[in-house]
Amino acid sequence: PQIRDAEPQSEETFGPHVNPIKTSRTHQELHKELLLAHKKGKGLCSKPELQQVLERRRKEQTRKAEGAQARTPLEEELLKRQKKNTEQEGERVREEAQLMEFVRVRQNLKKIQAFHKTTNS
């Protein structure tokens, strides 16, 4: 056997080294997703979902409180009248229901009286 001089082998003879992890489809998709998240400004260490929900609720409550404070006297008066009208409408509906119940009971009594008159006669 002949011993040859060890030639340094370049990448050209073997080709570029292929990393099987980087060529996998799932790795490529994950890398793409991370790049998109980075472009959007979302970090990997974002807040937990519960904390995000709590912050969102606090913001909504402060907006509602500010909205209630920013009402003019005219708006306040209109809201009072609207509330009063809805209460009156609800009261009217309840009274009509009671009246209808009264009419039904009265008709039943008339039927019972008529039945007793016919049976007694």
Automatic annotation (TrEMBL):
Biased composition (Basic and acidic residues): 56-66, 73-93
Biological processes, Gene Ontology terms: actin filament bundle assembly; actin filament polymerization; regulation of actin cytoskeleton organization
Protein's name according to its UniProt entry: Family with sequence similarity 107 member A
The keyword Iron-sulfur is annotated on this UniProt entry: no
Stored PANTHER family: DOWN REGULATED IN RENAL CARCINOMA 1/TU3A, PROTEIN FAM107B ISOFORM X1
Keywords from the UniProt entry: Coiled coil
GO CC terms of this entry: neuron projection; stress fiber; synapse
Region (Disordered): 1-26, 56-93
